[in-house]
Design goal:
single chain; 135 residues; alpha+beta; Arc Repressor Mutant, subunit A; three-stranded mixed β-sheet; 22% strand; globular; binds zinc ion
């Protein structure tokens, strides 16, 4: 979908940062870290605006966040109009450090003990991706 249409669908204003961030994720087709986004954005990058932009895009389900470990967070585009309940799993490649959205594989509903309440559930499989495995 066209970036302008994505924003319009969600009732969001077309700011330069929002457009740039979505375009970047569309272009690369993979998940990116803040550092990678920063490099690509160049002069347009501004930390405060970046976090505000990311939060808006997360809140409106345009992108999602993938927590790799306590220092690495990646962002990826939501390809469908799936809402949060249809979450998918992610694959982290230990060799090339890429994170792939495995959108066809949904996260199970885990039955957790009474009294506990799930807010977020992330599944990250670690191993070797198809590209690295070939070499
Ligand atoms: Zn790899
Ligand atoms: Zn994903």
């Amino acid at each position: 979908m066209n970036v302008v249409d994505i924003l319009k669908n969600k009732g969001l204003k077309k700011t330069a940062q929002r457009i740039m961030l979505i375009k970047l994720l569309q272009k690369t087709g993979i998940s990116l870290t803040e550092g990678e986004i920063k490099t690509e954005m160049g002069d347009l990058y501004d930390r405060i605006t970046f976090y505000r932009t990311v939060q808006t895009l997360l809140d409106t389900n345009i992108i999602h966040r993938i927590t790799v470990d306590n220092i690495t967070v990646k962002y990826a585009l939501n390809h469908s109009n799936h809402d949060h309940s249809e979450n998918h799993i992610h694959f982290f490649c230990k060799q090339c450090h890429s994170v792939t959205c495995l959108e066809d594989i949904a996260i199970h509903e885990y039955r957790i003990p009474q009294g506990f309440e799930t807010e977020e559930c992330e599944v990250l499989i670690k191993g070797m991706c198809d590209k690295c495995g070939k070499e």
